[in-house]
Amino acid sequence: MGTMKAFVMPEVGRTEIVEKPIPEPGPNDVIVKTTHALICTSDVHTVKGALPVKDGVTLGHEALGVIHAIGSAVTGFTEGQRVAVNAVTPCFECRYCQTGYTSQCGGPLGGYQYTAQRDGNMAEYFLVPHAKANVAPIPEDVSSEAAVYACDMLSTGFMGAEHCYLKLGDTAAVFAQGAVGLSATIGLSLLGASRIFAVESIPNRQELSKAYGATDIIDFTKGDAVEQIIQATDGEGVDAAVEALGFPQTWEACLRVTKAGGRVSNIGYHGENPEPLRVPLDAFGLGMADKAIHSGLCPGGNDRMQRIFALIRTGRFDPTRMTTHTFAFDDVGTGFSMMQNKEDGIIKPLITF
């Protein structure tokens, strides 16, 4: 058995690159040799201790590469084939999966296995469970630098947009324009929102948000974001709002900015909030304003990935515009530190192997 380099959390608050054995595939698994990966803010949360994981676990859940080894029961793939894998790797057999809640595979958030339940894929090689359902071949005309965004950011952001349940011409607001918020903005534009309010104060994110379909930029440093949106909509508010940051303030703002009959879609991570999230009834018309809250984790699977690849390959948007920095794997610690500290206008760092 050979060894590989892996980016791990030896203990809460610390990261390093270590040597680990190259994983061996079980009958239903595939081993991928990594070529490209992205660092996620969720990894930052994990290292802070927000997600209880074992010491020494490999970080990462956004990676792609070429097939290195194939389990005995896996058919339809070949060694050397370029493939991507979603951050969520469901079994597609349990009752949760069969009723459509693949990210909740086996129980709440059970489909999120990388780092949470098994080693992540910020390593030179990684294992894909339930490979026939979760390995997605990458079309030849989609670059790896673009395809890697389908692994989490686009899939999660689009789910945030999908949970807005828009009708053509509806209005929407997205609170925060990091990579997942930007992806939600793309999704809302694709789904037919007539007006998209992007709440963001950082200039490069504002500019990218407009390129991705935002019609109005709301800078919260220049006044209360909810009041600005309410005023811009003649006192009515928006049909739907996406929480893409994970702060109590933006959560409550989403509840307040939606009109009666509106929808709030949560894709922000709230695991670091010291207090439970509030649901102020006055934001719901004493609890009777027909507002709905939808939450979720991005769905996994080959089909989900192929749908996103189809949008990329036809030029509907260019996800690589979110890549602000590129690092070789040996320098992944530098990229991770920059994500932790939000340095140099970073949005998304690409890691090459």
* Largest sheet descriptor: 7 strands, mixed
Number of strands: 16
Highest CATH level, the class of the largest domain:
Alpha Beta
Tally the structural domains: 2
- CATH topology label of the largest domain: Quinone Oxidoreductase, Chain A, domain 1
Task: Tell the overall outline.
Answer: globular
Give the number of helices: 11
Distance between the termini: 20 Å
Question: What does it look like?
Answer:
The chain has 353 residues and is an alpha/beta fold. It has 2 domains: 3-152 and 298-352, Medium-chain alcohol dehydrogenases, catalytic domain (Quinone Oxidoreductase, Chain A, domain 1), CATH 3.90.180.10; 157-295, Rossmann fold (3-Layer(aba) Sandwich), CATH 3.40.50. It is 26% helix and 25% strand. The chain is built from 11 helices and 16 strands. It has helices at 41-48, 95-98, 131-134, 144-147, 153-162, 179-190, 203-211, 225-232, 248-257, 302-313, 332-341; strands at residues 3-11, 14-21, 30-38, 57-58, 63-70, 82-85, 125-128, 135-137, 171-175, 195-199, 216-218, 238-243, 258-266, 292-295, 323-328, 348-352. Strands 3, 5, 6, 7, 8, 15 and 16 form a 7-stranded mixed beta sheet that branches. A 6-stranded parallel beta sheet has the order 11-10-9-12-13-14, with helices on both faces. The protein has a 3-stranded antiparallel beta sheet with strand order 2-1-4, with no helix packed on it. It starts with a strand and ends with a strand.
